[in-house]
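ARCHIVE RECORD
Type: protein–small molecule complex
Small molecule: manganese (II) ion
Source of inputs: curated submission
Record status: active
Notes field left blank by submitter.
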Amino acid sequence: MILTILGGGGFRVPLVYQAILKDTSDERVTELRLYDIDESRLQTIYRVLTELNETADYHPRIVATTDLVEAIAGADFIFSAIRVGGTQGRALDEVISLKHGVIGQETVGAGGISYALRGIPEVVAIALQVKKHAPNAWVINFTNPAGIMSEVMQRYIPGRIVGICDSPVGLARRILTALQRAQLLPQDLPTNVPGNKRVHVEYAGLNHLGWITKLLVDGQDVIPVLLQRPDLIESFEEGRLFGANLVQSLGSVPNEYLHYYYYPRENLQTDQKSDHTRGRYLEEQQNRFYTQAESTETGVFNLWERTRLEREQTYMATNREATGNFERDTQDLESGGYDKIALAIMHAIANDVPAELILNVANQGVIKELDDSAVVEIPCRVDGRGIHLPETAHLPDHARGLVVNAKYVERETILAALDHSRADAILALAHHPLVDSFNVATQLLDDLVDHFEALQPLGKHDV
Ligand code: G6P
Ligand code: MN
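STRUCTURE (tokenized, with ligand):
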């Protein structure tokens, strides 16, 4: 089986590779193709993987290439994990947004819109090449903003693209662990999600904008048990972030990225005070890693692992500072997110072993507030025949307006990028709940156009 990773020089590729090395199934990866436009980063990651090979009984053949067609031709699975504009672009999105008094996070608000506007043309180009050179491949999209990018790809290669995110299953796992620690669940219950046959998660929304509404363990919903115990709510990451009051009022447990929506003022203040945005921090950290790796002969994996741990420890640090100021649980520093989900999809399809996974797929009537082609994040069943949707996924009342509005913003962003439409870009920015003035939307867009060449087709106010 041939697997291609677009963005193969990316920092998180070794995580996926470690999961590949653990796979002992019949239909496992025999050839891994890493594609990247940055030759030097590609070589560094290639070296990390080669070091990992020494620890494994079996490993696939690895090909590293900067030629897209060579990378995808005849592939069975393609992981798309690109970052258009690099971490430098991410940092710029944040800094420019903050200058205009709005949050610039990479997937939420103005930052997410800017990042999507830059990325959409590249993602379309990739989808067209996949259609031509890898007509039978399944594309698994990791590229953020994952909801928007999956919806874009779906227009070009419908039925063979699925978007993934690890935050919903991470949330489910943390709730289960909290209940188990409090002796409210059997000690022998595995808390891993996905791949847990005793657990069913009911989750609905869009990427980074969803809620767990029910969490069934052996058929029994445990969310009501959690909601009665503020101490338990505040014993796991999301509960601490949001606070027991909010979670109890909602009656469902929000994805961690909703922190930006429920606490915009606190997040903005903390971000503005902080001397480093997340993007700037990662830009420096990654530059350091890739530079050091070049001058290191052996032990590149150890260097990578140390850097990864530090990255996990500081994940959502400003959000935690804005409401609560706490350290992450050590178990949340372990991998077990993206890599596991991506491998689980491949495994379910290639070996025809059914699995339940929370995925970004075209709605097809599942969430009644949205039309059929809208990409939504919902629990699906995957097997050798493909992806099967649930009959329905229920949005809590408080979530309906937010989700319908966010889908409108996503679609205006897509229209803006595809049609080079300034009007649609402004409609997208102005309707985002985290952009609080039409003037801000207009000035922000002008500033983004000045800083990013890829955004120039959107034009300026005075031309
Ligand atoms: C979570 C999110 C991803 C994001 C990742 C890394 O897993 O679901 O969408 O890419 O965190 O975030 P970071 O800030 O470390 O790049
Ligand atoms: Mn995500």
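CURATOR ANNOTATION: Residues 144, 165-167, 278, 282, 311, 315, 337 surround 6-O-phosphono-alpha-D-glucopyranose (ligand 1) (CB under 6 Å).
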